[in-house]
Amino acid sequence: MADNEILQMHDLKPAPGAKKDRIRVGRGEGSKGKTAGRGAKGQTKRTHVRPGFEGGQLPLYMRLPKLRGFKSPFKTEYQVINIAKLAEFFPEGGELTVADLVAKGAVRDGYPVKVLGDGETTVKYTLKGVKASASAKAKIEAAGGSISED
C-alpha cells in the first residue's frame, strides 16, 4: 500500500501473532502433545472433579451452619408514627388522613400507617385510614379524638 492511499476496511488484518488457535484440552496426543494440557497423573487428568469437592475433606457447605427461620412474603410492613411526631407535624390537630401524613413527610407513600403511643397530646385528632396501638388509641381518645381504620 502506497503512502498516498487511503486505508480501507478490506485492508485491515490482525497484527502478526495476535490470532492463535485455542488449545483443545483432553483431546489426546495428536492435538497438542503428550498430556494434552492436563498435567501429570491424578483424578483431574482422568475425569472431572465437581466444583466444591475438597478431596474427601468435609466440604465448606457442610461445615457452615444451616440457615434457619422463615420470612413470610405476605407480611404487612407498617409505616409507624408516634404521637409525639404527630403533635410536631400537626400542632393544631384536626382531621388527618394518610395523604396528609405523606404530604408533610411524616410517612412514606404506599405503605399502611400505624400510630404508636410514644409522646403526649392534648389536641383533638381525628385519624382516618390508619391503625393504632392500644396506648395510642387511649391517648388520642382521652384528648377527645378518634381513630378509624377505613
TrEMBL record:
Protein name, UniProt field: Large ribosomal subunit protein uL15
Matching InterPro entries: Ribosomal_uL15 (IPR030878), Ribosomal_uL15/eL18 (IPR021131), Ribosomal_uL15/eL18_sf (IPR036227), Ribosomal_uL15_bac-type (IPR005749)
Subunit structure: Part of the 50S ribosomal subunit.
Function: Binds to the 23S rRNA.
HAMAP family for the chain: Ribosomal_uL15
Keyword list, A-Z: Ribonucleoprotein, Ribosomal protein, RNA-binding, rRNA-binding
Family the UniProt entry places it in: Belongs to the universal ribosomal protein uL15 family.
A Pfam short name: Ribosomal_L27A
Keyword flag Ribosomal protein: yes
Gene Ontology molecular function: rRNA binding; structural constituent of ribosome
Keyword Phosphoprotein attributed: no
Ranges where the record places region Disordered: 1-54
Example GO biological process: translation
Domain Large ribosomal subunit protein uL15/eL18: 80-147
Lineage, uppermost ranks: Bacteria, Bacillati, Actinomycetota, Actinomycetes, Bifidobacteriales
GO CC terms in record: cytosolic large ribosomal subunit
Extent of Basic and acidic residues compositional bias: 8-32
Gene3D superfamilies: 3.100.10.10
